[in-house]
Amino acid sequence: MKQDDDFVKEFVKHLFPRVVLRRNLRLTYTFCLGGLAFTAFLVLILSGALLLFHYQPSTNGAFTSILYIENSVTGGWYIRNLHRLASNFFLVLLFLHTLRVLLTGAYRKPRELNWLIGFGILCLALFEGYTGYLLPMDQLALWATQTGMNLLATLPFGELLRSFLVPDDIGQPMSLVRFYVLHIAIIPLSMLILCMLHFYRIRKQKGVLPYL
To answer: Looking at the domain assignment, is residue 17 inside a domain?
Structure first.
């Protein structure tokens, strides 16, 4: 129980450090890429939660609800575009953060486990974006999802994964519900847990951030 409390406390302390050294506030080309990515993640959670109040995860209601959000809900157009732009920024920032880790050798011992955790976050972020792409249920979403499923089927165990994600057909009720549940609950929760673990291990390895 105490270890769980420490886990949460270290996560909160990482978000709100007691003190920050002046030299760590200098603007550089890698300035706070991980922190910026996590900020985009929080924006995604907030904007996505607001969209949930009006979105209908059904084959007949999904696209209609998107039109309703954009045209009839006060600020709906802004919230939906904020959600889309935040998802793009989130992926770009994660890629840049991963690239920085590779180029600077920050994946080496003793941080190899944290590198794997960060890579897991990147993979989940890509999958999160893919599952969200189907939800508007427009023609582009259907075509893109079909292409992704065809590519998935070429991988080892791809047919098994495809049958789980799409038990009926692209855009049909069961597949839409599974993409919806993955997008709004399972993947974001998994990413949040991995982010907490990522920050926790950073704080435990004091040499990475000497001001902690």
So the answer is: no
pLDDT digit string (tens) for 156-177?
888 999 999 999 888 899 999 9
Question: The CATH number of the domain where 138 resides is what?
Answer: 1.20.810.10
The DSSP call for residue 109 is T
Rounded distance between C-alpha atoms, residue 79 and residue 85, angstroms: 10
Domains: count for the chain: 1
Q: What is the DSSP string of 133-201?
A: HHTT--HHHHHHHHHHHHHHTTSTTHHHHHHHH-SS-TTSHHHHHHHHHIIIIIHHHHHHHHHHHHHHH
Residue 13 lies in a domain: no
| 104-122 burial: b if 16+ Cβ within 10 Å, else e | eeebeeebeebbebbeebb
Residues 138-158 have pLDDT tens digits of: 999 999 999 999 998 898 888
Using DSSP, state whether 131 is helix, strand or coil.
helix
pTM of the model: 0.85
Task: State which residues form the domain around 176.
Answer: 32-204
